[in-house]
């Protein structure tokens, strides 16, 4: 920027006082000050816009690198998944051929589902009684009546 010292400022002020005159000098100084302020704000806005655009370019580059890395990871996962599926198919084919070769037929597992007799018989009654598991359903009113303190007559 322009290097203006104290002596140069005094020379410019003296020339302005002679050329403009003492009556108009304060108004001209105010106008020059506001114009310089507007120019500084404009320059700072331009700098901020340039910085934003540079940051935006950096973010776009970063976004591209992240997308490329994600694409590489996705491709590697797909290749490993396809290899796993191929290995799984080979393993199940060999297992199914080995099962077909066996003469004994093993029944398939059947989930008990909602067979309440099977579920009820799984835990012995004495264990349920000892651990406090309720075996009979009781309504709310019956429970209140059961645990209500008795009146003494």
TrEMBL record:
Say where the protein is mainly found. Answer: membrane
Q: Which domain of life is it from?
A: Bacteria
Q: Which Gene3D superfamilies match?
A: 1.20.5.3310
Instruction: Tell me one Pfam family matched here.
Output: TatA_B_E
- Does this UniProt record's set of keywords contain Cell membrane? yes
Subcellular locations according to the entry: Cell membrane; Membrane
InterPro entries listed in its UniProt record: TatA/B/E, TatB
Q: Which UniProt keywords apply?
A: Cell inner membrane, Cell membrane, Membrane, Protein transport, Translocation, Transmembrane, Transmembrane helix, Transport
Task: Outline what the protein does.
Answer: Part of the twin-arginine translocation (Tat) system that transports large folded proteins containing a characteristic twin-arginine motif in their signal peptide across membranes. Together with TatC, TatB is part of a receptor directly interacting with Tat signal peptides. TatB may form an oligomeric binding site that transiently accommodates folded Tat precursor proteins before their translocation.
Mind telling me which HAMAP family this protein's record contains?
Answer: TatB
This protein's assembly is summarised as: The Tat system comprises two distinct complexes: a TatABC complex, containing multiple copies of TatA, TatB and TatC subunits, and a separate TatA complex, containing only TatA subunits. Substrates initially bind to the TatABC complex, which probably triggers association of the separate TatA complex to form the active translocon.
Q: Which family does it belong to?
A: Belongs to the TatB family.
UniProt protein name: Sec-independent protein translocase protein TatB
Q: What is the lineage of its organism?
A: Bacteria, Pseudomonadati, Pseudomonadota, Betaproteobacteria, Burkholderiales
């Amino acid at each position: 920027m322009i290097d203006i010292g104290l002596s140069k400022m005094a020379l410019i002020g003296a020339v302005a006082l002679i050329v403009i005159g003492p009556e108009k000098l304060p108004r001209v100084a105010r106008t020059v000050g506001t114009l310089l302020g507007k120019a500084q704000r404009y320059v700072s806005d331009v700098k901020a816009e340039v910085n934003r655009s540079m940051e935006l370019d950096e973010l776009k580059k970063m976004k591209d690198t992240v997308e490329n890395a994600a694409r590489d990871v996705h491709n590697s996962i797909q290749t490993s998944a396809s290899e796993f599926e191929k290995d799984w198919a080979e393993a199940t084919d060999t297992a199914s051929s080995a099962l077909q070769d066996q003469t004994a037929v093993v029944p398939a597992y059947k989930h008990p589902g909602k067979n309440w007799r099977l579920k009820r018989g799984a835990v012995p009654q004495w264990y349920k009684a000892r651990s406090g598991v309720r075996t009979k359903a009781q309504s709310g009113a019956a429970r209140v009546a059961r645990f209500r303190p008795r009146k003494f007559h």
